Amino acid sequence: MSNRLSVQAYLGAAWLFLILIPVQFYFAAAGSFSNLTFSPHMWLGLGLHALTGVLIVIALVGRLPRRALEWGALQFVLIGIQVGLARLQFPGSTISAEPQFVRDLVNAIMVPIHNALGSGSGIIASLHGLNGLAIAAAAVLTVRYGRSLLKSARISTVAKPAAVVVPPSEPEPEPVLAGKE
Q1: Could you tell me if residue 177 is inside a domain?
Q2: What is the pLDDT of residues 4-36, one digit of tens each?
Q3: pTM greater than the 0.90 cutoff
Q4: Which of 67, 68, 106, 174 is the most buried (most CB within 10 A)?
Q5: Which CA distances in Å does 74 have to 84, 98, 137, 167?
Q6: In the chain, how many domains are there?
Q7: Where are the alpha helices (DSSP H) in 62-126?
C-alpha cells in the first residue's frame, strides 16, 4: 500500500467514524426518550469499535507514523471502556451476534461487580455519556491528524525544483582609498 493511499484510507476511515458519532448520540437519545430499543445504538457501537480496528490496521499495514496508530488505539480503548460502562449497568443485556464466551465473561465479571455496587453501579455507568464526549473529541483530533498527514504526503510528492548553480564570480578588486598609494 503506497503511503499516499494509506493516508487517504486512514483519513477516510477517520471521517466516517467522526460522521457516525452524532448518529450514535441520536440512537442513544431515541432509545431513552422513545419506545425504540437501544439495539441500533448497540449495533452502531460495535460497528464503530470495528472501525477503530480498521484505523489500527491501516496505520500498521500502511506504515503510517506511530501517532496514527496511537489515535486508532486510543479510540479502540475508549470504546472498550464505553462497552464496559454500559455492561456495568445492564450486565444481562446482550447482542445476538456475541459469542457465548463473551456472555460467559460478562456474567463472570460484570454481574458480581454490578451486584456489589448495587444502586451505585448506575452512577458509575453514567460516565458512559462523558466517555462518549471523549470519543467524539478523539475522533475530531484523529481527523485533524489525518488531514495533516495528507498535507505532508502532498508536499513530499511535489517535485522539488532543480538546484540553481551559480558560477563563482571573479573576486572584486579591493577599493583604493584616497591618499594611499
Answers
A1: no
A2: 899 999 999 999 999 999 999 999 999 889 888
A3: no
A4: 68
A5: 15, 23, 11, 55
A6: 1
A7: 66-89, 100-117, 120-125
